[in-house]
Amino acid sequence: MQGLDKLLRELDQAQNALARLDGTLTTVEFDPTQPGSIQAAITKMEGAVDASVAAYSRNPMVKELTDGVKANLREQIEQRAAKARTVAAERYEEREQMDGTIFRKIENTIDDLKWADTNTFDRHIKKLSSLLKSDELVEMSDELVGLIDLDAWLAAGEATQGGMVGSAELEWPVDPREELGMTIALAHWFADKPDRAIHFAHTFYNSGGRKITPELQGMVAQVFAPFGRDFIDYVKQETGVVELTNIPEQSASTARKVFVVHGHSEAAKEKMARFLSRLDFEPIILHEQASGNRTVIEKIEAHSDVGFAVVLLTSDDVGGALGGDTQPRARQNVILELGYFVGKLGRSRVAVFRQGDVEVPSDFGGVVYIQLDGAGAWQQALGKELNEAGFAVDWNKIMT
User: For residues 269 and 285, what is the distance between their CA atoms, to the nearest angstrom?
Assistant: First the structure.
């Protein structure tokens, strides 16, 4: 009878597990052209399945059931990604000019803006404005700009200016489409009179120094770098290139792991780890993980099952072209790990934080560089990146 009781109990648990799996488990988004993005979606899905039936994890029937569910959902994601790629390939000829030219030009122009000084900013911002007014994009750009009131937004931001220079704050729209429209309007506004950009950067992105160029570059890194990525994704989504896939929301613990890539700055590492923990994410710091007689790269691979990565570029080394000037740069292992996670997770799931004037890699177009300032604006910027990557973020915890 004991064997029968055990069987009946396992059957009952399997029925309960099946009921828990019948419904919405989580929502995943992925770029069908990025293997890392597809794998991140699969990982999130599998974590949600495991979390929903964790109470019955020792039941062999439940394990077999969940393995089958995960295999089925994994196949769904892969099939939808393949279908999206097929549709994209079929439309390639008619979209070739937009995908192959306009998007690449936008990325390249924003990369140029990242390094622009007061002498070259004018040329690059006018080029960006012109691209946004091109035949391929003007209708969509104008529609987004029509959603916002740039003058009122700027006036509201300047009204927050206190007695200290740089204390003014902008209230960016919550609606992603309005945010895109605001940035497009800013690009046109700057292009009309480039001196406006200097005043804007000094007012809202003041780094506390006396040099104009770092403020201008910091503003570009926080405003136009993420815009380039988000706008291109938006256009692709609107034209059928990117598919957002919903799967039948419970939070999976594995999906809320964030790998923290860092150099020698203990302060920056601890500050980031504390902030992530406050938002209910689990920061993964390599040297805190068990070695298990593995090499460093093997440890990275073993602990790279995360939903997001944060990279801290702190001025630990100096370097430059042979015979040229040197400038602060991050440790080479940090740059290596940056490339690793961009390849594994996709650019939209990697946020890079830059401390001071540290050199940044020039070959990672679309990766967001956020200034690791002392005022805490980086926290809101990271919260936004996590939110856009599909994670639930408690904004009350960010603002405290």
Answer: 9
> Nearest-CA neighbor of 36 among 383, 350, 391, 388?
350
Question: CA-CA distance, 304 to 297, in Å (whole number)?
Answer: 10
Q: List CB contacts of 398: < 8 A, sequence separation 6 or more.
A: 279, 379, 380, 383
pLDDT surpasses 70 at 282 = yes
pTM tops 0.70: no
Q: Are 332 and 309 in contact (CB under 8 A)?
A: no
Residue corresponding to tokens 């408690």: 394
Q: Is 311 helix (H, G, I), strand (E, B) or coil?
A: strand
Taking the mean position of all CA atoms in its chain, how far away is CA 273? 17
Q: Name the residue type at position 220.
A: V
pLDDT at 248 over 50: no
Rounded Cα distance, 144 and 136, in Å: 14
Output phi, psi for 313, to 5 deg: -95, 100
Least confident of 78-82, 229-233, 289-293: 289-293
Largest Cα–Cα separation, the chain = 87
